[in-house]
Amino acid sequence: MSSEGSGAKWTPNSIRTGLIARKRGMTVMWDDNGARLPVTVLQLENCQVTANVKTVRADKSEYHAVQVAASDRPEKTTTKQMLGHFKKANVSPKRIVKEFPVTPDAHVPVGTTLSACHFVPGQFVDVISNSIGKGFQGVMKRWHFKGLRASHGVSVSHRSAGSTGAHQDPGRVWPGKKMAGRMGGVRRTAQNLAVVRVDTTLDLVFIRGCVPGVDDAHVLVRDAKKNMRDIARVNYAQGNFDKVLPKNIDDLPFPAGTKELAAQLPPIIIAPSHRVTSPFTPRE
């Protein structure tokens, strides 16, 4: 998969924008060797670019970002301020708006509709979302404590935390002590997940493994910071150009994968099994 026709080309020093998707649930796939793979299905809902951000910080450095919005909503449930913002970008009102930091060469024209082909099967991504809330839980469920003895000498305290304090010195409980409390419902990032399949017709991205969040929750998907950026930069600096991207991936759509690019690609793109199971395997 190659870059768009704008002349821009992805480099290891480039940071592309991410996408906003909806988690549709989990299913299974089988690779070329017959191994069963659990996958999570993410779907794009009219994900469009609404703004390009450029800010000069106090230290004279520049901050660049691409603002992305997804999931159409009725005008009557949208505030007037946001209606004006969407009208200026010439896009329909959206339910969620997020911005992704990028490099100066990765800005995307406002109003561009992004496609699932933004991610290439075989590459690795990070998925960010709020985890499933579990409510107030004890130490055994929350921190995997083994509990107290369930035989002699313990009276109805089998699942309790046990002693939490110390002696007169320090005479208090240290901050951060693992105790019972609210579990889940916080922002989490699942790192280095492999993209195994892309459906450009339905805008589906199949990712190996599980991602945080309940079904139908909005999730943020971006290129993996560790596998796709840090390792690529090290190999690029050392002259190992054949190891910059995962095996059998020549390039990434840059600055973004759009609907126009998706029309030129097959409706379904699948990663071979060796690209799914072995990240950054040296080429033959």
TrEMBL record:
Location of the protein in the cell: Mitochondrion
Keywords annotated in UniProt: Mitochondrion, Ribonucleoprotein, Ribosomal protein, Transit peptide
GO cellular component terms, semicolon-separated: mitochondrial large ribosomal subunit
Region of interest: Disordered: 156-180
Composition skew (Polar residues), residue ranges: 157-166
Superkingdom of the source species: Eukaryota
HAMAP family linked: Ribosomal_uL3_B
Descriptive protein name: Large ribosomal subunit protein uL3m
Origin species: Phlebiopsis gigantea (strain 11061_1 CR5-6)
